[in-house]
Amino acid sequence: MRKFMVSCMGIFLMTWGLSTDVFASDLNHSKRFKIGNILLANASPQNYEDSVDEEIKIGMLVDKVATPSGEFYDVQFYAEGEPLENVKTIRIKTPESKNILLKNPVGLSYLEVEAYNMGIDDLKKRFPEGKYQVNLSSRKYGKATTFDMEYDFPAAPVVTSPTSGATDVSLSPTFEWESMADDDIDGLLLILLTEDFSENYIELIRYLPKETTSFSISEGLLEANTEYELDVVAYKAFGENAYMTGVRYISFTTSSATLPE
């Protein structure tokens, strides 16, 4: 799953017509849980200790992901910050007055709920355009946060090198894509990670100015004969901590290591 915001393990209760509980003992890094019409995911972020905030940050992310096999859409709501440990419930009210509930009985400082791999018709049905209101269980942490969401996705960047599915890619490649300097976006995000979790797993994340058209990888970071996922993301804000993105996903495999003569 390609993520613009990297998430941390949480405990969720989602109300989507029928409530279902998911407990911490049920969650691990290799599972995804489908509850009703929403799929929940959990993973550990890099340097999470650096991301904890003294205030509660509420965010919304809507992705349009272009892959070699077609396009799909992801939607994510998240909350983070140390005071979240004292919040037991987060209620997300949709434009159709449906409620999504996130429960936090053990006092975690990061929670998220996510639906992913949706087609456009499914997106419009489950997440219609309009206002999404997020309320915390204690009003002392501020008023409700409102996101006014419209389907206004940036174009997915066009990656020209390497091509998707390429093999024998250099161990110190330069990734290139067509310019988006004239597009209505706030910037670019590059995400590089290994396809499989292993002892050599990496996840490189770099924010880039919108005028950027290439990014080079230093020698020594990539492993030989290894498959990698590359995401080049164009993003723009539609509110505070709310982003609409166009994501280009490709995969490639590095060349064999060259032995010194």
Which helices and strands appear, and what pairs or packs with what?
Blueprint: E1 12-15, E2 19-22, E3 32-35, E4 38-41, E5 57-67, E6 70-80, E7 89-93, E8 99-103, E9 110-118, H1 120-126, E10 130-136, E11 145-149, E12 159-161, E13 166-169, E14 174-177, E15 187-194, E16 203-208, E17 214-216, E18 227-239, E19 242-254
Parallel strand pairs: 5-19, 13-19
Antiparallel strand pairs: 1-2, 3-4, 5-6, 6-9, 7-8, 7-10, 10-11, 12-14, 14-17, 15-16, 15-18, 18-19
Could you walk me through the main structural features you see in this protein, from its secondary elements to its overall organization?
By secondary structure, the protein is mainly β. It folds into 2 domains: 12-149, no CATH class; 159-254, Immunoglobulin-like (Sandwich), CATH 2.60.40.10. 3% of the residues lie in helices and 47% in strands. The protein has one helix at residues 120-126, and strands at residues 12-15, 19-22, 32-35, 38-41, 57-67, 70-80, 89-93, 99-103, 110-118, 130-136, 145-149, 159-161, 166-169, 174-177, 187-194, 203-208, 214-216, 227-239, 242-254. The strands form 5 sheets. Strands 5, 6, 9, 13, 15, 16, 18 and 19 form an 8-stranded mixed sheet that branches. A 4-stranded antiparallel sheet has the order 8-7-10-11, with no helix packed on it. Strands 12-14-17 form a 3-stranded antiparallel sheet, with no helix packed on it. β7 (89-93) and β8 (99-103) form a beta hairpin. It is globular.
